[in-house]
Amino acid sequence: RQDVLVLTPWLAPIVWEGTFSRDILNAQYLQKNLVTGVVTFAVEKYWFFIEGFMRSANKYFLSGHPVNFYLFTDNLEKISHLQMAPENHLFVIPVHNDPRWQDIPTSRMDILSSYIHSQFQHEVDYLYCMDIDVQLLAHIGVEIIDTLVATISSWQVTPQHESGAYETHPGSPAAIPEGQWDFHYTASFYGGSVTEVYKLTRACSAGVMEDRENGIEAWWHHESHLNRYLQQHKPTRLLSPEYYWDTEL
C-alpha cells in the first residue's frame, strides 16, 4: 500500500489491511503449535459488554487457532453461559472493584503482571490485552503475532491529537520529553510474547506505584505509562488504527 505508513523509523512493520497474506501466516502459525491468550476486565458498569465482546472475540479473534480468554470480573453472577469454539477456552477470574473508577485501570498492570508470573506464562505463548467495551467486526488473525505489539491510537490521526496526548508532569515516570514522541499507542489493545508482556506490565505497575507515592496521577492513567515504556522499548510490530477504531471518529 502506498497510501499509509507501513514501516516505522526503527523498521518495525505497521499492519494495515492489504499488507499481508493471512493464509500464509496461518500455515506458519499452525506449524508452531502455539496458544495465545486474551485478557479483559469487566467491572461494575462494564458487565454489560461481556456477552458482546465474548461472542465477537470467540468468532473473530485468531479464528481456528487455540485461544485462552481470561475474563477478570467483580461479579461472577453476571457471567452467562457462553458457547465457545472447540479450540477456545474461557477462564473467569474474580477481582475486587475499587471505589474510584481510575483504580481498576491503574491496578490492571499490577494484576496482570502477578497473574502472568503465577499462571499465564505456563499456559500461553502470546498474550494480548483488550478492553471489554468493544466488539470485533472482522477477523483479527495471526498477522498481530510478534514479540512486542502495540496499536496506534485512532486519535493520532486527528489534528487535536498532540496537545495533551502525552504525560508531561516532570515528577512522573510516565513523562515523555518533548521531541521524543513517535506514535501514541492505545492501552485498549496491546500484547506480544508472554515474557515481553510481563516486562511491560511490571514496569508500568512500578511507574503507577511511584506516581501514587508522590501524589501524582498520570493524565491517561496506565496508558501514559504504557506509552512511556514503548517509547523506551520499541514495539516489534505496530497495528494500524483499523484494529481499534474509536467510533466517535
TrEMBL record:
Pfam families in the record: Glyco_transf_6 (PF03414)
Binding site for UDP-N-acetyl-alpha-D-galactosamine: 41-43, 46, 131-133
UniProt-listed InterPro entries: Glyco_trans_6, Nucleotide-diphossugar_trans
Membrane topology summary: Single-pass type II membrane protein
Keywords: Glycosyltransferase, Manganese, Membrane, Metal-binding, Signal-anchor, Transferase, Transmembrane, Transmembrane helix
GO MF term list: hexosyltransferase activity; metal ion binding
Active-site residues, as the UniProt record annotates them: 223
Residues at which Mn(2+) binds: 131, 133
Any one annotated GO CC term: vesicle
Residues bound to an alpha-L-fucosyl-(1->2)-beta-D-galactosyl derivative: 223, 246
Compartments reported by the entry: Membrane
Protein family: Belongs to the glycosyltransferase 6 family.
Name of the protein in its database record: BGAT1 transferase
Species for this entry: Acrocephalus arundinaceus (Great reed-warbler)
Phylogenetic placement of the source organism: Eukaryota, Metazoa, Chordata, Craniata, Vertebrata
